[in-house]
Amino acid sequence: xLNMQRKDALVLLCQDFVRxxxxxxxxxxxxxxxxxxxxSLGFDEVKVDYFGNVLGKMSFGKGGKNLLFEAxxxxxxxxDPSEWQYYPYGAFLADKxxxxxxxxxxxxxxxxxxxxxxxxKHDLGDNLCGNLAVAATVHQERFEGVSSRLVGSAYEPDxxxxxxxxxxxxxxxxxxxxxxxxxxxxxxxxxxxxxxxINAALKMISxxxxxxxxxxxxxxxxxxxxxxxxTNITSFPRNNAxxxxxxxxxxxxxxxxxxxxxxxxxxxxxxxxxxAKLSIPDLDASVHISRVxxxxxxxxxxxxxxxxxxxxxxxxxxxxxxxxxGLKQAGLRARLSSKAxxxxxxxxxxxxxxxxxxxxxxxSEDLAHITDEHIKIEQLVKxxxxxxxxxxxxxAS
Amino acid sequence: MxxxxxxxxxxxxxxxxxxxxxxxxxxxxxxxxxxxxxxxxYDSVEVDxxxxxxxxxxxxxxxxxxxxxxxxxxxxxxDASSWTVDPFAADILDGKIYGRATTDMKGNLxxxxxxxxxxxxxxxxxxxxxxxxxGVVHEECFEGVASEAIGKKYKPDFVxxxxxxxxxxxxxxxxxxxxxxxxxxxxxxxxxxxxxxxAIKKMMKILLEIEDSFIPExxxxxxxxxxxxxxxxxxxxPGAxxxxxxxxxxxxxxxxxxxxxxGVLGQVQQVIDxxxxxxxxxxxxxxxxEAEEVCYNGEKIKAxxxxxxxxxxxxxxxxxxxxxxxxxxxxxxxISHYAFCTNGSYYAxxxxxxxxxxxxxxxxxxxxxxxxxxxxxxxxxxxxxxxxAGSVFNVE
Lengths: 397, 396
Fold this sequence. Notes:
The complex is a heterodimer.
Chain A: H1 4-18, H2 28-40, E1 45-48, E2 54-59, E3 61-72, E4 93-94, E5 97-99, H3 103-124, E6 129-137, H4 146-155, E7 159-162, E8 173-174, E9 176-185, H5 200-214, E10 219-220, E11 224-225, E12 228-236, E13 247-256, H6 262-279, E14 285-289, E15 291-295, E16 301-305, E17 307-308, E18 311-312, H7 318-329, H8 347-352, E19 357-359, E20 374-376, H9 377-395
Parallel strand pairs in A: 3-6, 3-7, 7-19
Antiparallel strand pairs in A: 1-2, 2-6, 4-5, 5-20, 8-18, 9-13, 9-14, 9-17, 10-11, 12-13, 15-16
Helix pairs in contact in A: 1-3, 3-9, 5-6, 7-9
Chain B: H1 3-17, H2 27-39, E1 44-47, E2 53-59, E3 64-71, E4 92-93, E5 96-98, H3 102-121, E6 129-136, H4 145-154, E7 158-161, E8 169-173, E9 175-184, E10 188-189, H5 199-213, E11 218-219, E12 223-224, E13 227-235, E14 242-243, E15 246-255, H6 261-277, E16 284-288, E17 290-294, E18 300-304, E19 306-307, E20 310-311, H7 317-328, E21 335-338, H8 344-350, E22 355-357, E23 372-374, H9 375-394
Parallel strand pairs in B: 3-6, 3-7, 7-22, 8-21
Antiparallel strand pairs in B: 1-2, 2-6, 4-5, 5-23, 8-20, 9-15, 9-16, 9-19, 10-14, 11-12, 13-15, 17-18
Helix pairs in contact in B: 1-2, 1-3, 3-9, 5-6, 7-9
């Protein structure tokens, strides 16, 4: 299915994407390059929305499903380029791999998706029905599903394939995530006379300890634990000496299971805080879910809170069965992953919107976000064949 | 003190206030101090490598060396709009000079500088000794560091610290150490924390143990040797979806007399060891905070944050000599101790030189908005310094 010419085209396309740096909020260059590439590869319609997401659509015969392939355009920072063996935006070929920031997360998937869509149209255009869209989204790294929401409402997909690295296995669910912030207020005093004040850091330590002792994470045999993990603690004023801190903030990473809701996730912690107040005097604390705000490269503000619910679809779901069938037909090992997806990319579609979704992508999650990020060309090629197979499996009339 | 001298003192104090001098930016006020000392007839005026200004007056022959010490720097004014006066205009209202550093401590430094000059003018037979007045840099964050250079070079027999004391005689203070404790863990993605080691959790264990089992020593005069958390932060900061591999806490430890660096760190280490005995994952670093700043002349000033406490008995010879001198100036001061840390930590705490504190204005007027000094206090401080010097130099 992928002859030498197509393989070369795939590698070149992925290399071109890597050579357009696109840190979150700065995806403009990649977005306009993608728009042109989609037109020249035969997409019927290409639209850029106000966040700057690029949505290319292929229309097939009447009836059939609306299938969506989604991959992010943005990537995390390079940090110190001198630690990289290869220039991170150079897309160098070595060890049968493409090196560079974004290769695994997720420009490889994006190139594979676009080329797969183009090939499906070319090879099987008349024999398929429905629509296939490829969405290249902005600001995935810092916002959970905010840009996807816009894609979802514009295209209304029946099924979604998320291009996160999954070692070419099909993942059928993910834990959700909430970032819970706990803040307390003390009373400032000279540190030579702490008794005149209330040390917010010490109160917070007692409170967090109380929560730790009394919080029982839920468990799901497939998704795992609904953990509550401390990720940050900071006292204020910063770099303080000479006074006791009057404010302290901790952040928890809470992973969500099916059935967890926004209000019970906060409510659980609020109840523990209320209980803690009975044994910790002068405790003045509040709980909220953290919010983020930024701008898109289009200039449009983007806002969101760090909250997305879990999702999981059954093994025998029609979409999963047709995807597996498609992979097999494409000559790949059709494998359902025994574990949940690593990140939260599918949480908008699968969790919020309830649209049947899977995660499928080339390369391995532990190559994401690292120095000397790369993708194996063999994985890239199989990824493209996989998307081709899933597209054929779902859209076959 | 006659009216002319009072006027001269008030004018000089106001000139000092009009030269802002945050720590590390004391150049203008240092020049004023040096020029004034020369104009007042000091026998020598030197500026050392940190930018400290040291003026010397020799009286008679031989005798003791007495050091009057005051710092030239001051803290920030904070929110300028909350001041009802210009913090650097040195306006006089109701017999008070207003402005940043009036109380802490340009008022008392100006009183020391003038007192020495008056002493020389009035010098009588039988007054023998060397009086050194030092205007010191970088006291606010580095108690006793710039002072060490002065102490080592001029080797005073006695020291008077001019920090505000409400005209009481101070015979000691608690010292201060800044202790840093870090716990070391292992990063992991926070969706899968069990493969990492959360440094905050390890820190919590230690802090809870400190809260449970650390009982500060209580000194009958100076108070408690408290250990208080002033800062906590985890790293990476801000961390997104990462189990933190580091957590750092800073403690303010108030020091009682005779406490050493080893002793103070050892005490915390004992708590850590107790926790570590039942938790093999505990890995820590414990050390004194170290700071480095730049002086106004470009020289670096660097030190570990350890300023020892000190206390002399009420019947100490120098304390009694000072008391006698103050009485001769018509004052009847109580004897007490400072509630904060001063450059005395070097002279008395490290070098063991007999030291007292004496100065006009209330300790509670330091570091506040609308800081002021009463002119009456300023004048009495000046008379008090002259009285102390006279008393020291008259001792056979």
